[in-house]
Amino acid sequence: MEKIIQHLWDKFLLVGENVIEALERKITYPELEIKVKEILNQLGKDILKMVLETQDAYLVEHREERPGWVVERRQEEKHVVTVFGEMSYHRTYFYHKETQSYAHLVDDYAGYTPHMRVDAAAKSVLADMATEQSYRRSGRGPEQYGWGESLSGQTVKNTIDRIKVPLSSDDIIPAQKRRVRILYIEADEDHVAQWGKKGRMQIPLIYVHEGIEKASRGRNRLRNARYFSGPYKTIDDLWFAVLDYIEKQYELDQIERIYINGDGAAWIRSGTEIIPKSIFILDLFHLSKYIIAAVGPEPKLQAALWEHIKRSDLEKVMVVLDKAQKLRPERQKAITKTKRYIRGQWDGIEARNRYREEVQGCSAEGHVSHILSARLSNRPGGWSKAGAEQMASLRAAKANGLNIKEIYLAQQKQPVKALQVDAEKLKRAKRTIQRNVAIEMIRNMPILKGPQSPLTKALRALAATA
């Protein structure tokens, strides 16, 4: 143990020496940052190697800790990619006479399986990276970060697929439920290319919030937003997950109204059948797209349509669209679609007018772009339904403030054995470290560099004998 501690101490001192040498070469700050990262990664690998090899030596020395196991071979090497890089260590191969089985017992303390190439902590980092970029690019992470050779995109995808994303709201049960008068729900979907198939599939996104607040100059944010997307079996299951969140987070009897804002798709409207006190509100962004498609660059027609919509006068809206059909015969199809859309969504338009003092703008299009499209549909390539829904759930989890690395690690098989060392040797090692620190502090006291005095003479003598 003493040799290990001395070796560890030497490594720490070497870090300082390497940094000083780098600075003496007058390197730039970015170069220094990269150099320090390399040095600390190497230190991390050295520490892990020492810990595992010390544990292995403990098992060899203490037979009572390995009943039935005898030494078969010594000094067998294993390589594994860690968060510090590719680390190698030597360990003992044991044989159990009764069960006639073989094992590297120290691997159990690290949670390493016989053919493990990348450990769980490193995989958790790659999984987090894969929520922001392609599987293939994430697989190059080990090489880019100095961990070792690149991994295949399939390896990263397999890691992602094994994560069980929490679809319930158990992580946010408050000590006391929140009380609000108005609650807002916004919904939209991303259209994602399907792998090996024509057409696109819809990946829905729903989020609940308490309204818009100013975050900084020129920037707003949603207050207490919660996002939902992922592998729900049905749309009803998705809406019931939203309801479950509302019931756990809020005093439902204190809520007067819940506004569901969206483009009027059937799946969005179905939320009013599940969410109590909910009212559907038509999103003006989508309504505007239909109006522009119908009347084009005709400011007078546009102004007339918006004025009649604001007054909830459906008859006059249709009169203006009839006039547009006569003026712009080339837009017949678009105008017909707009008429049908407005008639079908008129209740959402009237509700917006009726509650205009409470209804706020809808940002669903932007949130879909940021949370879903940025990873699912803004890049070439297709997805399987399961893969797209899994990624959507991970992106929603990140938007909710959950840590993907922590989620992954929590779901891995945890080592059942704690590291073991001799207690007395550990105490001696601790005293050695404390003594070394004290010596270094004494030797570097500013007073020793000052004028000579009886005190400095005594301290210098103490430092010399330390």
How large, in whole angstroms, is the Cα Rg?
32 Å
The low-confidence runs, each spanning 5 or more residues with pLDDT under 50, are none
Q: Terminal Cα separation, in Å? A: 22 Å
Number of helices: 19
Quote the average pLDDT: 86
Q: How many structural domains does the protein architecture include?
A: 2
Give me the secondary-structure category.
Answer: alpha+beta
Strand percent estimate: 15-25%
Total strand segments? 10
Walk across the major sheet and give the strand order.
8-5-4-9-10
Description of the molecule:
- It is a single chain.
- The protein has 19 helices and ten strands.
- With 466 residues, it is α+β, with helices and mostly antiparallel strands.
- The protein has two domains: 2-117, no CATH class; 170-406, no CATH class.
- Strands 8-5-4-9-10 form a five-stranded mixed beta sheet, with helices on both faces.
- Helix 1 packs parallel to helix 18 (423-443) and helix 4 packs across helix 7 (153-161).
SSE inventory with pairings:
Blueprint (H helix, E strand, L loop, with lengths): L1 H23 L4 H33 L7 E14 L2 E12 L4 E3 L1 H6 L9 H11 L4 H5 L1 H4 L8 H9 L20 E12 L6 E10 L2 E5 L2 E4 L3 E3 L6 H15 L7 E6 L3 H4 L8 E5 L1 H12 L3 H12 L3 H14 L4 H13 L1 H9 L9 H13 L8 H15 L4 H7 L12 H21 L10 H12 L1
Parallel strand pairs: 4-9, 9-10
Antiparallel strand pairs: 1-2, 2-3, 4-5, 5-8, 6-7
Helix pairs in contact: 1-2, 1-18, 4-7, 4-17, 10-13, 11-12, 12-13, 15-16
